[in-house]
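Hi support team,

I'm opening this ticket because the web form for multi-chain structure prediction keeps timing out on my end. I have pasted the exact lines I submitted so you can reproduce it. The total is 458 residues across two entries, so I didn't expect it to be a heavy job. Is there a limit I'm missing, or should I split the entries? Thanks in advance, R.K.
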Amino acid sequence: MKKAIVLLSGGLDSTTVLAHAKKQGYEVYALSFYYGQRHQFELEAAKKIAQYYQITEHKIATIDLRLFGGSALTDEIAVPKGRSEAEMDAAIPVTYVPARNTIFLSFGLAYAEVVGAKNIFIGVNAVDYSGYPDCRPEYIAAYEKMANLATKAGVEAAEQLRIHTPLIDLTKSEIIQMGLDLGVDYGMTFTCYDPDTIGRACGVCDACILRLKGFAGLGKKDAIDYTNG
Amino acid sequence: MKKAIVLLSGGLDSTTVLAHAKKQGYEVYALSFYYGQRHQFELEAAKKIAQYYQITEHKIATIDLRLFGGSALTDEIAVPKGRSEAEMDAAIPVTYVPARNTIFLSFGLAYAEVVGAKNIFIGVNAVDYSGYPDCRPEYIAAYEKMANLATKAGVEAAEQLRIHTPLIDLTKSEIIQMGLDLGVDYGMTFTCYDPDTIGRACGVCDACILRLKGFAGLGKKDAIDYTNG
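Hello R.K., no limit was hit. The queue was backed up. Here is the completed structure from your submission:
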């Protein structure tokens, strides 16, 4: 059975990726991060999801991205609310965490090397990507090339390491449809950048807006609670 | 004044790189890591060195590489002793920490993005490199390419981010000569993989052997204490 590292945030995208990797027959090692994000509810979701899918191992790496600051997700910078998609597309938003996917993939690479996995799955998406540079296909291709030069495994093994991005070309609606076809229960997932104290989604941050639009596009109702819903 | 991130372990190589970056006129932001290494003396050395060079800022990122295991530097795996250089060159050693430079550079990239630095200095070396894959020029070139696709800075700015590796083609003796010409006090630096409880170098791990050979090649005496010296 082929081993795969799945980067699992506990959100809609990464949960779909996990279900996809399982369906493809991979033995899954999931990796989540506590990186000082203001919303810790997604980590609780990640734990439940990992348990539900009975994966081989789930590790949570603590990495202090607050050390550098610079993002609304880790700092006392306000999360933008009620933006149109045009506004989201206009510039890289303040919710961008500097080098986040690069750091996450690098931990995934270390994990892959230790367990002998040749596959890393990440739920990046270049369509509804909120303007993050590290969600683009050219970035992923460059990362994969670097990763194969970086590691003992890449140097010694015949089989090259691959970064899998099954969602990269899909709209949010297409991602949700893919997950529903795989039997994903999206009620387990967590997306909001700025939930209330009991973990209900705000419904108006960029992440909520894209999620709600995804369900609306399919004519489906989202299973999670929204404070303003 | 151009800003630079310098990855500073507190060892001989990274201290030489710091002195070099200062001499070149960069405003230096140093970044060190506590990654569960068995020897914390090098972090103490890094703090002293950062202070000595009166750099703009010194951050220490805590990253739990023990989470994955797989290296003699972070696990209860024995550090090899008394090996010949042929033995060191024969295979990637157990002191290799999976994806370490990739993780370190990724944190450097986040730091660079936050302070607006376009330069990252790292003391990797492909000559006396102890067989680590992530010390080779082709790895660094691939990392630089990826980094420019990864970041807001790379996307929005005209000036590309550069990974500087001033030591990459130098022997250990040449590195030490470079440092001596820059006025580096190598008595402040720390190199050993397996020091005693008061921080004296063992003299027989791969790192000590390469360091001692470097000084011997110049006909100089190393200023630090060795338990077997």
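A quick check on our side: The first strand of chain A starts at residue 3 and ends at 7. Let us know if the file doesn't open in your viewer.
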